[in-house]
Amino acid sequence: MFAERIKNRLLNWHNAGLYRKPVEINKRQEKYLFTGNRKVLNFASNDYLGLSVSEKLKQKVSRNFLKYSTSSSSSRLVAGNYSVINRAEKEYARFFGYEDAIFFPSGYQANLGILSAFFEKNDLLIFDKHIHASSVKGMLLSGADFHGYNHNSMSHLCRWLEKFRDNQPAVLTESLFSMDGDFLDVQGFKALKERFGFFSIVDEAHAFGVAGKNGKGIARDAADIGVGTFGKALGFFGAFVLLPAGFKEYLFNFSSPLIYTTALPEAHAASAIDILDFISQCEKKRKHLREISSFAKTSLVSEGFCVKGDAHILAIEIGDEGRTLEISRKLLKKDIFVLPARYPTVPLHKAILRIGITALHTEEDIKKLVSTLGLVQK
Ligand SMILES: Cc1ncc(COP(=O)(O)O)c(C=O)c1O
Question: Rounded to the nearest whole angstrom, what is the distance from the C-alpha of residue 204 to the centroid of ligand 1?
Answer without folding.
Answer: 9
